[in-house]
Amino acid sequence: MHFTIEQRPQPSAAMRVAAPIIATLLTLAVGSAFFAALGYAPLAALHAFFIQPLSSANGLSEWLLKASPLILIGCGLAVGFRGNVWNIGAEGQLIAGAIAATGVGLYWPAPDALLLPLMILAGIVAGMAWAAVPAFLRARMNTNEVLVTLMLTYVATLLLSWLVHGPWRDPAGFNYPQTALLPPAAMFSYFDPAYRLNTSIVATVIAVVAMWLFTDRSFLGYKMSVSGAAPLAARYAGFRESSAIWIGLLAGGAAAGFAGVAEAAGPLGQLSPQISPGYGFAAIIVAFIGRLNAFGIVLGGLLMSLLFLGGEQVQMTLGLPSALTRIFQGILLFFLLACDFFIFYRLRRSGGH
Amino acid sequence: MTPRLELRNISKRYPGVVANDDISMAIAPGEIHAVLGENGAGKSTLMKIIYGAVQADSGEIVCDGNRIERHDPATSRALGIEMVYQHFALFESVSVVENIALSARMPFDLDALSRQVVELSERYGMPVDPRRIVHDLSVGERQRVEIVRCLLQRPKLLILDEPTSVLTPQAVEKLFETLRQLSAEGCSIVYISHKLDEVQALCDSATVLRGGRVTGTAEPRKTTSLELARMMVGANLPEMHIEPARPSPAPILEVKNLSADPPHAFGTALRDVSLSVHGGEIVGIAGVSGNGQAELIAHLSGELRHRHAEAIRLEGQPVGRLDAGERRRRGLAFVPEERLGRGAVPGHSLRDNAVLTAHRAGLVRGGMVDRGRAAAFADRVISRFKVKANGSGAAAQSLSGGNLQKFIVGREMELAPKVLLVSQPTWGVDVGASAFLRQTLVDLSRAGAAIIVVSEELDELFEICDRLLVICQGRLSSSLDRRKTDREEIGLLMTGGTESSTHKGSAGALHH
Question: Are residues B245 and B298 both part of a single domain?
């Protein structure tokens, strides 16, 4: 008996809904077997992974706090991904944004009321500037933006490291590689001082709506999707490839730059080498789990954030090694993306004689 | 006499389509048997079943009186059944003899094989130099390689799938001589085509297919084209109404001394191309594919830009350096030969594909796509051009080639262009829809538009064009009045007397 994979004439609407459900069930089944085989009680592990992090107000606050940058950056990146522009360097753009914002917050003499807006502006501009380098190189010299954005991430990381070890190091910081704390006027305000969730999440909500309008309704977004899906058709219609490249990279840069501001002027309050726990890279996965669609990215960001929290939770409460939690996260992402495949394709039994 | 090959009640179903429905036919030794039918009539499926590349759901195949039980291409070749596909399967970067050696079931001895190739090709009047690299061969020569490759196996039955679609009229005549010689030696030939004149010139008998069923059998030499066409189409063909052209006093599109390097390694350079098209007329560009048509049309559409703005003028204004969008803004529209991926985005709905070029017709307002208007535009095209589709929400890739072509032509025409470029307007489109598309092109031109049609179908060009030009190796001939030229003259210009595509040139190469 043979099976062949064939493209569906129309993507399956039923499968679009069923795919994430099937993926979740498969993950639960395989994950349980996996935990059981290693001698951990599967139910307790799953409970610690998915239920415990969300069963307190603080847990919910942390959940949204971590989901916010993932969703924001995911939206920015998806604009480019839809147009075949592969910005892999959101992490570097995030760091560039955080550096610029902290620089303004610490060293720019501005009235209190203007300080945070100026920092946001500086962070977004820095993120876009970091992304403009690969955009310029790709549009003018056809260099591969995957390589350039990725390598610029290392440049940003090293720049950050130099700043916090050198010129920007807090003189009163016991020689730790970190800057002084930002003044209160430079910080996003909390909804409730007991929890770390802050007003930067408003920007994420705005970004989601803007991203949806741009990709689903605007003519510019339409042109980008044509460039991505059929470059020859874009050229046939006379859409400029360079504008797709610039828009795609700058959108990702701006989103990542803002996320950098929100980290520095939010939960951290200063600049340190651990400014981002890998949000820039995780957001790439979030964009794809969300099928490059604004509302899908919201769900993808919430799931990814929960996996971060759940992973920490099982390490603390059950003493699972961190490698195990990574494997479990991998299983979930694998099934999610694998089930999506069947929206567009199907298996057919072919008569093998 | 036992038939060489007999098909009994062959049926083949694919999801949603019956490709072959209860087909029976018999072919005698030495007979040249035509299988006639429109695109989608089931000819190709039937041939693949005969060759064993596809298995029938039911029915049986009998070869020289023996039923074939387990059927696949290896079985066919053991029985002496060989097939020349419409799309050649040759490796471009290696020589002719190496290509043949790759598929021949014989010891790998290139020298011996070369001698055999030369001997066979001379015997059948198809000169092929075994040492030449396939990439340097013309399309006609590549076909000879494919045929020689089959002849080496001493076939008893040779299947040819639309073999003349890439040949000049002269090359077609050479091919027919070879096929007649083979037939005289006892080799049966199955000749698949939709060209009635060829079938009448070559074939002893014909089976006509329509919608997967046999709709008639005939002796083509004793049957009129009209009767054959009726069996193929199932109805009388609409008649064309062509009024005499009244060209505008000044040309709308002018090309002067356009030369351009090839855009990629396997492209063709354009050399000193000049032409002008007036409003109200249709100008046809004939030629064997790969002679610069793609490059010329890309320069005209703006997909490729030229260094000199003056090389191309639209209504007197230099446009050579403008991109496709800017030229469209000035009234140019274009139907490319690739429908999926160039003329339309495969995964997008027809509504979204309407926006692709019709966005300037009020489908975008305030930077936002007006979905209601886009859908209305798509629906208008669907109804005016009788596109068979599941509404404007259907994905472009879900349409058949002919229906998508109708949609794209319709979309471009709805824009009321001043200049319309059309490449291969009726490739893969059935006879009825082709006639409709040709009529709409004529109507648009008589309403004042300047139209350029690039086609490899000479019949089509002769039917609708007022003037013809021939492109060969990147050079364009001077303009010929349709009423004062004929296929013979066009055919000679298509080969251009050049080394690689004429009989003499290749024969000479053998003796280097």
Answer: yes
Q: Cα(A351)–Cα(B5) distance, rounded to whole angstroms?
A: 25
| pLDDT tens by residue, B172-181 | 888 899 999 9
- Residues of chain A neighbouring B356 (CB-CB closer than 8 A): 226, 233, 236-237
Among candidate residues B90, B87, B18, B12, the one with its CA nearest the CA of residue B50: B12
What's the CA gap between A91 and B418, in Å, rounded? 50
Chain B neighbors of A229, CB-CB under 8 A: 345-348
In a domain, B337, yes or no: no
Inter-chain CB proximity A238 and B328 less than 8 Å: yes
Distance between CA A257 and CA A97 in Å, rounded? 4
In terms of domains, do B187 and B258 share one?
no
Q: Is beta strand B66-67 parallel, antiparallel or unpaired with respect to B58-63?
A: antiparallel
What is the C-alpha to C-alpha distance for residues A15 and B484, in angstroms, rounded to an integer? 61
pLDDT of B297 strictly over 90: yes
Test B328 with A353 for CB contact under 8 angstroms. no
Where is average pLDDT lowest: A7-11, A90-94, A127-131, B463-467? A7-11
In sequence order, the β-bridge partners of residue B80 are none
Among A227, A236, A240, most B C-beta atoms within 10 A, so best to mutate, is: A236
At A328 the three-state DSSP class reads helix
Q: Is residue B430 part of a domain?
A: yes
Residues of chain A found within 8 Å of residue B352, distances taken between Cβ atoms: 222
The residues, any chain, with a CB within 8 Å of residue B417's CB and separated by 6 or more, are: B331, B332, B333, B449
Give the span between the Cα atoms of A77 and A91, in whole angstroms. Answer: 11
B133 and B109 within one domain: yes
Rounded average pLDDT over A171-198: 91
CB contact under 8 A, A240 and B325: yes
Residues of B with CB under 8 A from a CB of A: 55, 70, 301-303, 323-328, 334, 336, 338, 341-348, 352, 355-357, 359, 364, 367-369, 371, 394-395, 397-398
* A218, A237, A351 member nearest B356 (Cβ): A237
Pairing outcome for strands B58-63 and B5-14: antiparallel
Q: How far is B77 from chain A (nearest CA, A)?
A: 19
Number of separate domains in chain B = 3
Count chain A–chain B contacts defined by CB atoms under 8 A: 75
Average pLDDT over residues B443-450: 94
User: Cβ–Cβ of B326/A217 closer than 8 Å?
Assistant: no
B114 occurs within a structural domain: yes
Q: Which residues of A touch B (CB under 8 A)?
A: 9-10, 213, 217-220, 222, 225-226, 229-230, 232-233, 235-240, 351, 353
pLDDT digits (tens, 9 = 90+) for A16-32: 888 888 988 998 899 89
Which domain does B354 fall in, by range? 346-414
> Please, are residues A77 and A342 in contact by the beta-carbon 8 Å criterion?
no
pLDDT, tens digit, 9 for 90 and up, residues A289-340: 888 999 999 999 999 999 889 988 888 888 888 888 788 878 888 898 888 8
Helices (H), B152-292: 169-184, 196-202, 225-233
Residue B113 and residue B210 share a domain: yes
- The CATH number of whichever domain residue B12 belongs to comes to 3.40.50.300
Residue in chain A nearest B362 by alpha carbon: A219
- The CA distance from A237 to the nearest CA of chain B, in Å, is 6
In whole angstroms, give the CA distance from residue B123 to residue B127.
9
Averaged pLDDT for residues B371-395 = 92
Q: Do residue B397 and residue B320 come from a single domain?
A: no
Task: Nearest chain A residue to B16 by CA: give it.
Answer: A9
